[in-house]
């Protein structure tokens, strides 16, 4: 009986252990199956996402590569330019430029290599027009009225406006020209960095980067010169001539436009510092000069010195 009981006990143990082992193995397989399912699902989601991202990237790259680079920095369409010129020439401002003068400047800006560097002396009714026409280019304005300059910059933060303190008087034009000619080999050289110059006609208190830019187009339409103590445009014209001749790179030629060319200061200083030999186009109100980069050892503003002196003396008399 003792043996029988032992056998029964052994059998009982076997019966009790067998289901436990079976249940444990089944649980492990379930966990393994669940893990494989989750891993497979994650892999499929990753694969689908990667393929979609790749498709979008490929499509974007294809569109970008098929789009000409020039369209990104494309110039303004002719219709837009002509519209701007039309409405600017119809302005109610008494001192606005006429259509032919606006078009002359606009035509040069359109031919200018991009980005075009455009420097303007004077804040006028055409200020916003110049910014718009020099699309994708660099446009900088210089004005003698610090309060008006601040007002314009606050009203139109997209504009780069700097004020400058002129120390000249219109009534001193002849003395200032004579002084510049006497110092032509020293402080008033035609090729120099005006930032370090003490020439009476040179503007040396502009922001440093203004002297470092190779300007493609310069417009002199300021400062004021309507009365004897007004600053006049002598310094602006002289500075424009020096900046054009002192370029370090870029296009060796610079277009300089001189507005109100009928005025005495504009004609005399234009002939003296921009030179008649460089005058390529003129109207009653606008002079268009094209100046070339000069050697730093040059001591003459104009190549044809004798003819220029004769024309200046004739104009003054």
Automatic annotation (TrEMBL):
Transmembrane annotation, as ranges: 30-49
Pfam family, one: IRX15_IRX15L_GXM
Compartments where found: Golgi apparatus membrane
Protein's membrane topology: Single-pass membrane protein
Keywords from the UniProt entry: Membrane, Transmembrane, Transmembrane helix
Organism: Stylosanthes scabra
NCBIfam families: A_thal_3515
UniProt gene name: IRX15L_1
Main location: Golgi
Keyword DNA-binding belongs to the record: no
Protein name per the record: Protein IRX15-LIKE
């Amino acid at each position: 009986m003792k043996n029988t009981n032992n056998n029964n006990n052994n059998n009982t143990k076997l019966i009790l252990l067998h289901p436990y082992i079976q249940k444990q193995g089944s649980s492990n397989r379930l966990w393994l199956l669940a893990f494989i399912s989750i891993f497979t699902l994650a892999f499929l989601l990753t694969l689908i996402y990667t393929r979609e991202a790749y498709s979008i990237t490929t499509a974007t790259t294809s569109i970008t590569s098929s789009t000409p680079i020039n369209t990104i920095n494309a110039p303004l369409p002719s219709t837009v330019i002509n519209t701007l010129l039309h409405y600017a020439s119809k302005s109610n401002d008494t001192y606005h430029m006429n259509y032919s003068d606006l078009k002359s400047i606009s035509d040069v800006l359109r031919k200018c290599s991009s980005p075009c560097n455009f420097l303007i002396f004077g804040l006028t009714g055409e200020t916003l027009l110049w910014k718009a026409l020099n699309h994708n280019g660099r446009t900088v304005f210089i004005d003698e009225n610090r309060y008006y300059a601040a007002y314009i910059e606050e009203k139109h933060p997209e504009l780069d406006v700097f004020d400058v303190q002129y120390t000249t008087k219109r009534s001193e034009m002849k003395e200032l020209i004579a002084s510049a000619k006497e110092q032509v080999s020293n402080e008033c050289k035609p090729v120099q960095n005006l930032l370090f110059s003490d020439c009476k006609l040179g503007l040396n208190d502009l922001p440093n980067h203004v002297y470092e830019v190779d300007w493609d187009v310069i417009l002199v339409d300021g400062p004021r010169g309507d009365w004897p103590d007004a600053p006049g445009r002598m310094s602006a014209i002289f500075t424009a001539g020096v900046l054009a001749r002192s370029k370090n790179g870029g296009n060796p030629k610079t277009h300089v436009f001189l507005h109100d060319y009928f005025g005495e200061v504009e004609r005399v200083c234009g002939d003296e510092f921009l030179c008649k030999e460089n005058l390529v186009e003129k109207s009653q109100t606008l002079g268009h000069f094209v100046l070339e980069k000069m050697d730093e050892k040059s001591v003459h503003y104009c190549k044809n010195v004798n003819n220029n002196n004769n024309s200046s003396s004739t104009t003054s008399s």
